[in-house]
Amino acid sequence: MVSRVIPVEEFDLVIFGGTGDLARRKILPGLFRRFLSGQMPAGSRIIGAARSELDNAGYRKMISEAIAEFGGKESSNTKGLEGFLQQLEYVAIDARGEGGWRDLAQLVRDDVVQAFYFSVAPSLFGDLAERLHTNKIANKNSRIVVEKPFGRDLESARALNETLAAHFHERQIYRIDHYLGKETVQNLMAVRFGNMLFEPLWNNHYVDHIQITVAETVGVGGRGAYYDKSGAMRDMVQNHLMQLLCLIAMEPPGQFEADAVRDEKLKVIRALQPIDHHHIVRGQYDAGPDGPSYREDAENERSFTESFIAMRCHIANWRWAGVPFYIRTGKRMKARSSEITVVFKDLGHTIFEGDEARHRNILSIRLQPNEGMDLQVTIKEPGPGGMRLIDVPLDMTFADALGDTVEDVADAYERLIMDVIRGNQTLFMRGDEVEAAWRWTDPLIEGWEARNDVPKIYDAGSSGPDDALMLMHRDGRKWRDIKG
Ligand code: NAD
């Protein structure tokens, strides 16, 4: 199968924070892969802009080392690398001062697509936005890309939106949630809206409940101090899990177009009901053979921050009335696994005498690892013995079904950056969406802070605290096993 590459126009992409961790680990290795697949027209440039005093040669060396470390199998393509590095430039710049801005103004062209990636702390967004204008670098078609975290509550998110809106129109702002760039996340939409099979069943008449799990095996490690001010709710739920929830639950948009999709996602967030605290379980991992406890990692013996959260949510609309959405995410769990599972209702009646078992169709979409889907169906157990029924998975692992093309698919970051260059905002969060998500999560966080809620300790390498299992047991349901 041949993968199709959609061409892009010539561009100048400025990466503020171009020497930082994200730029070296994700953005530049991703751009290198796009270069190799022919998506970086000759004449296009990537301009690193950061505080370090480097010249072009120094920056190219830094990025060639980053690609060697993080670029995967393509990093051995030395001829390709040489060509890519020639399209890199560097400007030493001070976001808060005047240094470097005149140089940048001379470099960036007005007659090609212009994008500015703000891969720096959010406290610098305002300074960058303002200086891009006072130095007459940005124009009305420039695009800016901003990273998570987009605020830490509604108030700070609003302030950030206002700061950006003072200089850029919403159609110029690309808020990244890299989950939306994942191949399988987009597949959620393809599965729902590209098949006759599922959409008629996608409602409270046929769906018993939906589960979303994003489990990581790593702890907070070196990011402990930063993470301790955030926690799983702010770090994962408010953005990634809520985006997954939106894609699963939204109404079909009129067309696959940025505002049509984002309008529908916004409606889901607005329809989320407040959650009673009995339906929220927060946890912290204990020390295990593979590492220290959360509190040791966070260097805070009295930390009440959660490294795990499980919740039962409800969406108040006609489609989903009465259908619980169970979501959970955590660190130091038994396996690295992200999965969305749609559990359909029991058959109303069985015609098979002697078959007491409960048979259910379960559609499970794996985001990682082994991207794919499986659909549990009920069949007759082969062989003699009458009509005995068993449940078997119809498994489609994309790598098996689609072969090499899966390996070639772009990483989330590179796909999203190319969407910025193409001017396609469909997979980016709109300002009102982000604010609505905080409007829903803020009272939950304030609630547990006011109660001085102490997270439950769970074993490293487990499925989280027992209370999270109870959250579903109480409803006569159970979580899918977390399998890597
Ligand atoms: P980093 O600390 O590694 O890099 C920060 C960069 O900003 C450096 O290039 C530095 O030179 C530049 N910088 C700092 N102050 C500056 C100033 N006054 N003027 C000009 N440049 C300045 O940070 P990072 O991990 O690369 O993260 C960048 C942004 O991306 C942050 O907002 C972070 O929250 C977000 N983010 C990072 C990751 C990740 O995996 N690293 C993941 C998601 C989001």
Write up what this structure looks like.
The protein has 484 residues and is α/β, with parallel strands linked by helices. The chain is built from 16 helices and 15 strands. The chain has helices spanning 21-36, 56-70, 78-86, 101-107, 125-134, 154-165, 183-194, 224-227, 231-249, 258-271, 294-298, 398-402, 405-408, 412-422, 431-450, 466-473, and strands at residues 11-16, 45-50, 88-92, 113-118, 143-146, 173-175, 207-215, 280-285, 308-313, 325-330, 337-344, 362-368, 372-380, 389-397, 456-458. Strands 14-13-12-11-7-10-9-8-15 form a nine-stranded mixed β-sheet, with helices on both faces. The chain is globular and about 80 Å long. The chain starts with 10 loop residues before the first strand and ends in an 11-residue tail after the last helix. The structure holds nicotinamide-adenine-dinucleotide.
Largest sheet properties: 9 strands, mixed
What is the subunit organization of this protein?
single chain
Please state roughly what percent of the residues sit in beta strands, choosing from under 5%, 5-15%, 15-25%, 25-35%, 35-45% or over 45%: 15-25%
Q: What ions, cofactors and ligands are bound?
A: nicotinamide-adenine-dinucleotide
Radius of gyration: 24 Å
Shape: globular
